[in-house]
Amino acid sequence: MLDPTEENLRLAADALREGKLVALPTETVYGLGADAFNPRALARVFEAKNRPHFDPLIVHVATVEAVDRVADLEALGSSGASRARALMEAFWPGPLTLILPKRPEVPDLATSALPSVAVRLPAHPVARRLIELSTGAVAAPSANPFGYLSPTRAAHVADQLGERVDFIMDGGRCPVGVESTVLDLTVDPPLVLRPGGLSVDRLEALLGTVEVFDRSTTSPKAPGQLPSHYAPRARLKLVPAGALPLCDPSPGAVALCFDAASEARLRAEAPGLFARAFVLSPSGDLVEAAAELFETLHSLDASGVAEIWAERVPDAGLGRAVNDRLYKASEK
Questions:
Q1: Which value, in Å, is the radius of gyration of the alpha carbons in the chain?
Q2: For residues 310 and 67, what is the distance between their CA atoms, to the nearest angstrom?
Q3: 165 backbone dihedrals φ, ψ, rounded to 5°
Q4: How confident is the model at residue 218 (pLDDT cuts 50, 70, 90)?
Q5: What burial class does residue 332 get, using C-beta atoms within 10 Å of its C-beta: 0-12 exposed, 13-18 middle, 19+ buried?
Q6: In the sheet that 22-24 helps form, which strands lie side by side, from edge to edge?
Q7: Quick one: which of 65, 72, 57, 55 has its CA closest to 21?
Q8: What pTM value is reported for the model?
């Protein structure tokens, strides 16, 4: 575990160039970083996470100019390239991943042999500095075992991956708290493959028509598309908004409410139904709910809770990302 001093960042950058694994903070979640051009290092990522090789990785860059090292914007055509640059100017650095035609230098292991590559410029200064000091392109899926809760603190990485990672850069808690939104620009109209830290509404405001991926697919083009993912150790049951008082929980089960009003209804209509109720955002702020989601689930896992009943949040803005993560974490 390393504090993000300049000396430690250089140490970690050297490790990345040597093919080692370094967990790094981003504004979304912690990523498990490896040199994006080193197939052996990429193989270590899949091994450490027990991640299926058909699930592609996101390549993180430190500058917009570095995108050209991994992606061929001109292959999109003039209008497609202009659209990509407009998105980068509007939303980078930030929680937006773009699917773009890949350069042949990018190993197939990073892209699951697809002709496209997922690229992002993170907003966290520690991540950008580490990428800049290393190889300029770092593949970094979430730093957790495949299918489990994404880490929003360095301690979560240490707890879940332990000695499978060489260094962990401790950059504090991730402020966004859910993974990036993934937008496929190799199709027209653009397709949101994964809702995340940038709302679909903001993409639509810039692009006009944007379609949203049907999660029933089993052939992902980007991380986080499988129907089961982001799961805590506890059983998680997802119910419609306002339906928590109607549930039939096991003894000791807890409730996960969206806001204080929902918690108050639960207490009034079904007192004692759950051992305890937790609230994602007392004021009903969807940004706060997104930031608290994984943090709360990690805390519940640490407490040994066996069953969680969660209600859906409003399906607008970042609420889409919260509902997406809850659905994938829930029992089907």
A1: 20
A2: 39
A3: -115, 140
A4: very low
A5: exposed
A6: 167-168, 22-24, 31-35, 137-139, 58-61, 116-120, 96-101, 181-184, 191-194, 211-212
A7: 57
A8: 0.87
